[in-house]
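Entry 14. Structure prediction run on the chain below.
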Amino acid sequence: MIDLHCHLLPGIDDGPLSLEVSLAMARQAVDDGIVFTACTPHIYPGLYENTRAGIEAAVLEFRRELAAAGIPLQLGVGADVHLAPELAGAVRAGRVPTLCGSRYLLLEPPHHVAPPRFAESVFGLMTAGLVPVITHPERLTWIENHYAVFGDLVKQGAWMQLTAGSLTGRFGRRPQYWAERMLDEGLVHILATDSHHCDKRPPLLAEGREAAARRLGAAEAEHLVETRPQAILDDLPPAAVPPLPDVGAPKKAGKPGFWHRLFGNP
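Output returned:
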C-alpha cells in the first residue's frame, strides 16, 4: 500500500517530536503493509513555516535513519498545504512541494470555518495546472452545510482523500458517517493515514482498505490505496487513472441510521 498523507518527520510540525517515535511509526507502517510513505508536514503560514527545501532535507536525513535501523520503508516528499493566497505562485516558485514532484497537491482546508470562495480557490489551482487533493473533508466541522461543494469539486477535477481511520470510527461517529457517505457516493479517490503519532493516530491503512472493500468491493479498495496513489507517484493525468465508481450509485436498502436522520440531505 501507498500512504500519501503522513506526518512522519520528527520535530517539524505537530507530528512526532522525537526520532524514536518517528522510527516506531515507520515500523508500524511497514507491519501494516505500507511500502511507501509521502512525508507531508504542514505548511501553514504563521504556524508551520515549512518549505520544500527544508522538507527535502528532513526526508533525506530520515532516509538515512531508516536505513541504519533496517526499516524498509520508501519515502517521498510532499506537504499538507493549508489553503492560502498566492498558493499556485508558491508552488511555481519552488517554495511549496507537490506530492513527490507530481501535478498533485495535497490541499488542507481550514478545519472549523468554511473559507470564502473555497470552490473558486480550488478551481484557480486547477487552472494553474495542479490537481488539488483535498485532505480529510469528512473531518471538517463545516461539511454539513457545504457537502454539495465537494461533489461539485470532484466533477470539476479535484480529488478527495479520506482518512483511513475515519472509516473505522477512530475519529468518532460523525466523521465516519461522512466518510462512508462520500465513499458510497463515489466521491473518494484515495485513502491515507494522516498519521501524527504511533499511539493516538497510528499509520494504519489496511483497516481503511478493508472497510472500503466491505462497501465497494476489493477492486475499488485496491484503487484507493494502491492504483491511484501509484498514479500520483507516476504523475499520470487524471484521465489515465481508474475512474471513480458512479456518483450517486444506488445504495443498499435499509433503515436510515441515527447520523443520516440527524444530518439528512444537505
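The radius of gyration is 18 Å.
Filed with the rest of this week's runs.
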